[in-house]
Each structure stands twice: as C-alpha cells, then as structure tokens.
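Re: the request from the purification team.
They wanted to know what the chain is likely to look like in 3D before they choose a buffer screen. I agreed to run a prediction and write the result into the notebook, where they can find it.
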Amino acid sequence: MPGPSEQEPPTPFRFSPRRPLVVGIAGGIAAGKSVVAAAFSAHGLVHVDADRLAREVTQRPEILAAIAMALGPDLLTPQGQLDREKTAARIFNDPVARQQLEALTHPPVRNETLAAIAAAKAAGDSVLLDVPLLLERGLIEACDHVIFVHASDATR
C-alpha cells in the first residue's frame, strides 16, 4: 500500500455540463488570460485561441498574396512568409494599414473560430473562447458566459 507521498495526484475535475457551453475570456494585456485559459483547458474545455488561428490564417498563400498586394511585398520574408516584426511596426504606426490588414485577416479568423466552436460543441465539448477583440468583433454573442481577468499593474 503506497504511503501518503506516493499516492497518485487526484484527477482534475472535468467540466461537462448537460449541454456544451461557450465561455469567453476577456481582460487587459498581460492580465493573466493565458494562465486562466490553461486552467480551464485542464478541466476539459476546448481552448479556441484566436491568436493561434490568426497565425495560421496568415500562413495561407491567398492571404499572404492579398497582404503583399494591399500593404506591400516588403511585409513578406524572402521565404514568402509574413514578416511579423515589419508588419507590427507598420500597422501600429499606420491606422489605414491596420484597417487593411484587419479587413483581410479578421473574416477568415472569425470563420475558423466559429467552425472550431461548432466542432467542439458537436463533439459534446464546452469551449473557452480566447479572442482579443471578443466584444469589439461581436464574438461575445457566441458566448454563454464571459469571464473577465483582471490583474493590478504591479502584478502585470
């Protein structure tokens, strides 16, 4: 019989309501949303991460071509990938460029997000929806509940 220090750790509680739910997560930059998302994922919620989906969308050849056409080929690396550093510098200094990039990337990211939610729910799984612009882009409408993560400036 194992002693107290040799016991298996308890299995984490699995969140499984009667019908799958969508829980949105919101909060400021560096407030700890990723930590909260990991905790929810550990309890069985499917983590739908819009930032990850955006990185995937910006690897698509048709999106890369549209970005090069709208914002300039200099935003692509010699290998044809998005140069994230140059792109960030451009869009944070040029609101028109930012709007152009968002017009190209946000619709497919939204479609991928909604598809991921639908797939998880069809499998009977609840979702943690991690979208930086949850309120601004209307994806809050897909949520049954929203959690706001806050941290003091000192904690951030």
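For the purification team: Helices lie at 33-41, 50-57, 61-71, 84-93, 95-122.
Please add any questions underneath this entry.
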